[in-house]
Amino acid sequence: MKQICVVGVGYVGLVTASCFADLGNHVVALDVDENRVENLKKGIMPIYEPGLEELVHRNTKGGRLSFTTSYAEALAGAEFAFIAVGTPSGMNGSADLQYVDSAARSIAQNMTAPLIIINKSTVPIGTGDWVADIIKSAQPRPIEFAVVSCPEFLREGSAITDFMSPHRNVIGSLDRDRDAANKVAQLHLPLRAPIVITDLRTAEMIKYASNAFLATKISFINELADLCELVGADVKEVAAGMGYDARIGRHFLDEGLGWGGSCFPKDVEALAYMAKEKGLNPRILNEVMNVNYDRRKTVVKHLEQLLSSKLEGKTIGLLGLAFKPNTDDMRDAPSVDISNALMAAGAQVRGYDPVARETAASLMPAVEIFDDVYEMAENCDALVVVTEWNEFKQLDLEKIKSLLVLPVIYDGRNIYDPSLMIKMGFNYRAIGRGSNGQ
Ligand SMILES: NC(=O)c1ccc[n+]([C@@H]2O[C@H](COP(=O)([O-])OP(=O)(O)OC[C@H]3O[C@@H](n4cnc5c(N)ncnc54)[C@H](O)[C@@H]3O)[C@@H](O)[C@H]2O)c1
To answer: Could you tell me how far CA 216 lies from the centroid of its own chain?
Structure first.
């Protein structure tokens, strides 16, 4: 049993804290958001993540997990302090490090014994050294410490499984802090995953490189999807056929309306920014972003084609608002840009999402958000599948058809079978599915 402090109880911090507690460690999780901490003390989750509530309850009841806003309390007796605060996009696409800065300063001011400080936030290359400088300068008196990088690779929606069964754990440190890195590796041993021990900057780069590569796979298949439509090939089968090749792999060859969320957009942008800052021209990364954001713009044109009319005065319903299924996270969700584009074209927009209704409402005040998918569909001129929630796969499509003004569905995530949809009488458009889905 180790004594761990986790700073920041968002998607990554709360999962990290509760998983380490579940592995038998004693974890104190800290956040500056008093409301968040008060709610967690009452067992109320700040985010939607499958399995998280049960995990938090089990470990708070077991006395292994607690929450606080006090750094002094969280650090008392801790051997490890994970920094898991946000690193959103800042100026010119660079990562905004103000929360990391503030967390590092607070740790420095409140630590009373030697400490291993672990950067779990996704941070630009060189941040580990910068954090070490902050700690050194902000300590009231010198206390031994080491800074280790241990980037997180979990995905929202399957965060607990991803944390507990990772593909690998990456741990980076300066040579002088190798003992600390080995101790962090020991913490991860119960996860039984390969452990990559490397230097600080390489660990930081592995995280950005991984996210940028996955985003590239999605933009690649999306570019091919457009070509598939024009040459009469089916992109879903192309992805399956490619994916059997172990050198390629099927994961993230997912055509559709593109990626969004709290990681890919800011991480690809931040990596491109770092390259530009060093005088390089990140051509691939720039096009990966361009291809992705163009997906959102084409929805208006495709709907106009399906409806054979302009969107002025039409009512369009969005199936799904969260940036992906199984989360309530709306950060850079395609639904926001898509609804804005539809409204700019004169349409009225409605939306339905199984869990992101509240988070969506504040971001899209002009969109009418419904609690029931069939109520939303009633009198819509067309529906757009924006997020591939499982519950949309088994909708009563006959009922949906009877509720729509026109039987028009634009399937932005290819969740339906084109031939079946056409047989049912839908005016249906899929993505990249040759002559079938158009
Ligand atoms: N969300 C993901 O799927 C994911 C996956 C892998 C890596 N990451 C990375 O992990 C980091 C955290 O992401 P997230 O999605 O969990 O963020 P988040 O916004 O959900 O949570 C961040 C939390 O940190 C708290 N915080 C901010 N400043 C603080 C401070 N000084 N002291 C204590 N708490 C503070 C905030 O109140 C918030 O609760 C980011 O760098 C992100 O890129 C995220």
So the answer is: 15
Q: Whose CA is nearest to atom 21 of ligand 1?
A: 10
The answer to pTM > 0.90 is yes
If you ran DSSP here, which 8-state letter would residue 175 be given? Answer: G
Report how far ligand 1's centroid is from the alpha carbon of 388 (Å). Answer: 25
Are 72 and 111 within 8 A, CB to CB?
no
The best mutation among 262, 323, 326, 332 to test binding of ligand 1, ranked by most ligand atoms within 8 Å of the C-beta, falls on 262
Please check the confidence at residue 53 and state whether its pLDDT lies above 80: yes
- List active site positions: 263
Cβ(166) – ligand 1 distance below 6 Å? no
Q: How far is CA 199 from CA 100, 126, 209, in A?
A: 20, 11, 15
Q: Which residues of 233-259 are buried (b: 16+ CB within 10 A; e: fewer)?
A: bbbbebbeebeeeeeeeeebbbbbbbb
Q: Atom 31, ligand 1: which residue's CA is nearest?
A: 103
Q: Three-state SS for 437? A: coil
103 lines ligand 1 (CB under 6 A): yes
**CA 74, 75, 79, 84 torsion-angle sign:** positive
Mean pLDDT score across all residues of the chain: 97
**3-state SS, residue 189:** helix
How many angstroms separate the CA atoms of 289 and 294, rounded?
A: 9
pLDDT digits (tens, 9 = 90+) for 371-398: 999 999 999 999 999 999 999 999 999 9
Ligand 1 near 14 CB (within 6 A): no
pLDDT digits (tens, 9 = 90+) for 279-303: 999 999 999 999 999 999 999 999 9
Choose one of 152, 153, 269 to mutate for the ligand 1 pocket test, by most ligand atoms within 8 angstroms of C-beta: 152
Residues 250 and 248: their CA atoms lie apart, in Å, by 7
